[in-house]
C-alpha cells in the first residue's frame, strides 16, 4: 500500500515538474564549466550540500542528458548502475514517471535482497564465529548478533557517508530509524502485550542512546567531525558493551546469592539479550522441528552431484504447499538471488551435526567467494585492475581459487567436515558483508536519484524510505515475539539495535571516509528538517526516560497509543517542513 501511494505521489510530482520545465524551455541556458547558467540565477543555484546534480531538473528535457554526462556529481555514485544516465539519457523524457515507478519497484526488491543476505547468510556466519570464539550470550548479543541485526542500517550509512552529497541520507536514516523504533515499534509492543519492562536494562539503554543522540546533535551543530570524535563513537559502544557485561555479571552474582543456585538464564534473557537473539525462538526452533519431521527414517549416501544440486536449491518442495500465496510470490522473486548467494557465500550452521558441510559446493565457494570480493569491493575497481597492464586481478583470483579448491576437494570427504571448516564462516562473513555493502550502495544511489527528480532532500528520504525499509522487518519480528509472550526480549532488541546502528553507522562511516580523504568530514545539516528530526528523537527519548519510571516501568496501551500518535505528528511536521509549508 505504501509503495502504491508513493508511486501516485511520484507521478503527480513529475507531471507538475514537466509542466514547469516546459514553461522554462524558452530560456537560454549555457554551460559554464560544470555549472549551467540561465537567466534565473536563483533557480539554478547549488543545493545546501553543493550537489550540482540537483540542477538537472531546472533544465529543459533536451539538455538533461548532456548535463548528466558532464557533471561529476551525477556520475560519482558508488553503485554499479549509473541511475542519472539511465534516467535522462536512456529513456525519453515522456517516460520519466514510468522510470520512477520502476525505481520504486527496484527499491523494494533491493530491500528484500538486503534482508535476505543479512538474515540467511550474514547472521548465521556471525553466530558460527561467536560459537567458535566461545563467547557468552551477553557478549555475543551486543557484538556479533547486534552487527547481524544492524548490518543493513550500518552498511547503508557507510555507503551514504561515502559522498558528501548523500551524507544527509545517513543522518536521516539513522535518526529516522531511531524515532521509528522508539515510537512505532515500542508503542506497538505495548499495544500488543502490555508488560513491565526490566528497569535497569531499560534505563541503561535509554541513557546510552540519549548520549549518542546528543553527541550527534553537537557534531551536526559544529558541521564537521574529527578523527578523535569518530573514534569516540566506537569507544562509546565499547563502554556500552562493558556495561552490559558488568551488569550481567552483577545480576548473576546477586541472583546466585539470593536463590543459592546458578540458574539465571530465564530473566536474564529478557533483560540482556539483544538483536537477533529473539529470532532463535521465532524461527530456529520452528525450523528445527520441521527438519526433524522431514528427516529420512533410514540413512542413505548421496552422490557428489546430488549434494551439490540439493545445496543450491532454495525451494523446499515439502513445505511449499503450506505457504501463503504472498510468501510464494516473494519466494519466486528471491529465488534467483538466493541461488546466486548460495553459489558464492558459504554458511556454517553450528546447530547441524555436519555444520552444513557441502563438499562440492564449499569447494566452489573457494573460487566464487574471493571472486565476488574483488569484483564488488569499490565497485570492481580493483578486480578489473590489470597487473603490469596485461593480467587482470580477477583472473589471478580465479587461478588461486581453483588451486586451493582442488586441494580441499581431494583431501576431504562428503560425510565429515574438515577441521578447518570454521574458516568458511570467516569467508562467508566477508563475502556476505561485501554483498550487503553492494546492495546498500545501490539503495543509496536510487534514493539520491529520487531526491534529485522529486526535489526532496536526502534527509527526508532517509527518515522515510531508507529508515522504513531497514526497520520494517525488525518491527514485525518484534511484534511477533511480543505476541508469543516475550515483550521484554522484544523491547531489549529495539533499543540495543539502534544504539549499535547509531554509534557504528556514524563512527565507522566517517572513519572510512577520513581514510580516503582527510582527517575531517564535513556534515552540513540540510535546513531545518535535520533539527526537527534530531529534536523529535531527543524529545521522545526524554519522555520515555521520565514517563516509564513514573508508571513503575509498566508499559500499557495508553503509553503505546501516545507513542504512535507522537510519530504521526512528527512525520506530518517533518513533511510540512520539507515542503516549506512550516518555516522556523
- Fraction in helix: over 70%
Q: Per the principal axes of the C-alpha atoms, what is the gross shape? A: globular
Mean pLDDT: 78
Give the count of helical stretches.
21
Query: How much β-strand is present in the residues?
Result: under 5%
N-to-C order of helices and strands: HEEHHHHHHEHEHHHHHHHEEHHHHEHEH
Termini distance?
A: 32 Å
Order the strands across the largest sheet as they lie in space: 1-2
| Main beta-sheet annotation | 2 strands, antiparallel
Radius of gyration: 25 Å
Unreliable runs, pLDDT <50, ≥5 residues? 1-48, 262-294
Write down how many β-strands occur, each being a DSSP E stretch of 2 or more residues: 8
3D architecture notes:
The chain has 584 residues and is mainly alpha-helical. It has 21 helices and eight strands. A two-stranded antiparallel sheet has the order 1-2. Strands 3-8 form a two-stranded antiparallel sheet. Helix 6 crosses helix 19 and helix 11 (277-293) crosses helix 18 (458-483). The two termini are 32 Å apart. The model is unreliable at 1-48 and 262-294 (pLDDT under 50). Keywords: Antiport, Calcium, Calcium transport, Ion transport, Membrane, Signal, Transmembrane, Transmembrane helix, Transport. It is a multi-pass membrane protein. Residues 1-21 form the signal peptide.
Provide a concise account of the structure shown.
Keywords: Antiport, Calcium, Calcium transport, Ion transport, Membrane, Signal, Transmembrane, Transmembrane helix, Transport. InterPro entries: CaCA_antiporter (IPR051359), NaCa_Exmemb (IPR004837), NCX_ion-bd_dom_sf (IPR044880). The chain has 21 helices and eight strands.
Amino acid at each position: 500500500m505504501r509503495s502504491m501511494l508513493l508511486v501516485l505521489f511520484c507521478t503527480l510530482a513529475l507531471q507538475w515538474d514537466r509542466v514547469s520545465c516546459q514553461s522554462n524551455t524558452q530560456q537560454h541556458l549555457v554551460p559554464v564549466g560544470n555549472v549551467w547558467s540561465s537567466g534565473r540565477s536563483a533557480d539554478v543555484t547549488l543545493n545546501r550540500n553543493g550537489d550540482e546534480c540537483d540542477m538537472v531538473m531546472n533544465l529543459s528535457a533536451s539538455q538533461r542528458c548532456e548535463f548528466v554526462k558532464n557533471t561529476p556529481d551525477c556520475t560519482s555514485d558508488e553503485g554499479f548502475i549509473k541511475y542519472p544516465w539511465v534516467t535522462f539519457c536512456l529513456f525519453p523524457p515522456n517516460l520519466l514517471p514510468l522510470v520512477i515507478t520502476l525505481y520504486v519497484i527496484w527499491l523494494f526488491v533491493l530491500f528484500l535482497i538486503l534482508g535476505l543476505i543479512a538474515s540467511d547468510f550474514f547472521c548465521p556466519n556471525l553466530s558460527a564465529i561467536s560459537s567458535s570464539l566461545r563467547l557468552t550470550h551477553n557478549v555475543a548479543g551486543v557484538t556479533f548478533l547486534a552487527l547481524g541485526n544492524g548490518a543493513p542500517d550500518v552498511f547503508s550509512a557507510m555507503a551514504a557517508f561515502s559522498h558528501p552529497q548523500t551524507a544527509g541520507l545517513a543522518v536521516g536514516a539513522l535518526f529516522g530509524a531511531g524515532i521509528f523504533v522508539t515510537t512505532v515499534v515500542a508503542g506497538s509492543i505495548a499495544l500488543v502485550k502490555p508488560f513491565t519492562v526490566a528497569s535497569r536494562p531499560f534505563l541503561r539503554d535509554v541513557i546510552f542512546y540519549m548520549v549518542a543522540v546528543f553527541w550527534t546533535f553537537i557534531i551536526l551543530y559544529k558541521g564537521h567531525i574529527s578523527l578523535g570524535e569518530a573514534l569516540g563513537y566506537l569507544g562509546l559502544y565499547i563502554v556500552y558493551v562493558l556495561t552490559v557485561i558488568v551488569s550481567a555479571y552483577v545480576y548473576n552474582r546477586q541472583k546466585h546469592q539470593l536463590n543459592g543456585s546458578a540458574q539465571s538464564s530465564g530473566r536474564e534473557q529478557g533483560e540482556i539479550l539483544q538483536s537477533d537473539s529473539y529470532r532463535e525462538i521465532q524461527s530456529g526452533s520452528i525450523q528445527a522441528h520441521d527438519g526433524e519431521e522431514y528427516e529420512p527414517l533410514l540413512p542413505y549416501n548421496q552422490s557428489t552431484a546430488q549434494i551439490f544440486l540439493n545445496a543450491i536449491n532454495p525451494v523446499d518442495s515439502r513445505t511449499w504447499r503450506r505457504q501463503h500465496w504472498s510468501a510464494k510470490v516473494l519466494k519466486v522473486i528471491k529465488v534467483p538471488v538466493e541461488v546466486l548467494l548460495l553459489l558464492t557465500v558459504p554458511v556454517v550452521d553450528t546447530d547441524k551435526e555436519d555444520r552444513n558441510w557441502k563438499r562440492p559446493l564449499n569447494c566452489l565457494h573457494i573460487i566464487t567467494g574471493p571472486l565476488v570480493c574483488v569484483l564488488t569491493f569499490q565497485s570492481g575497481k580493483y578486480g578489473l585492475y590489470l597487473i603490469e597492464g596485461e593480467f587482470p586481478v580477477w583472473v589471478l583470483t580465479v587461478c588461486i581459487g581453483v588451486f586451493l579448491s582442488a586441494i580441499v576437494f581431494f583431501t576431504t570427504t562428503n560425510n565429515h567436515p574438515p577441521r578447518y571448516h570454521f574458516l568458511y564462516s570467516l569467508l562467508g562473513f566477508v563475502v556476505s558483508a561485501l554483498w550487503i555493502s553492494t546492495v546498500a550502495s545501490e539503495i543509496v544511489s536510487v534514493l539520491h536519484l529520487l531526491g534529485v527528480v522529486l526535489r526532496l532532500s536526502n534527509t527526508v528520504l532517509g527518515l522515510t524510505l531508507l529508515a522504513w525499509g531497514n526497520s520494517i522487518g525488525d518491527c514485525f519480528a518484534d511484534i511477533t515475539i511480543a505476541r508469543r509472550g516475550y515483550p521484554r526480549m522484544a523491547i531489549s532488541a529495539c533499543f540495543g539495535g539502534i544504539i549499535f546502528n547509531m554509534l557504528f553507522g556514524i563512527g565507522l562511516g566517517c572513519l572510512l571516509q577520513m581514510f580516503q580523504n582527510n582527517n575531517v568530514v564535513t556534515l552540513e545539516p540540510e535546513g531545518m528538517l535535520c533539527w526537527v528530526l534530531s529534536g523529535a528523537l531527543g524529545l521522545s527519548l526524554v519522555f520515555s526516560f521520565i514517563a516509564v519510571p513514573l508508571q513503575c516501568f509498566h508499559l500499557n496501551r495508553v503509553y503505546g497509543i501516545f507513542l504512535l500518535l507522537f510519530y504521526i505528528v512528527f512525520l506530518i511536521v517533518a513533511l510540512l517542513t520539507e515542503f516549506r509549508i512550516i518555516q522556523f
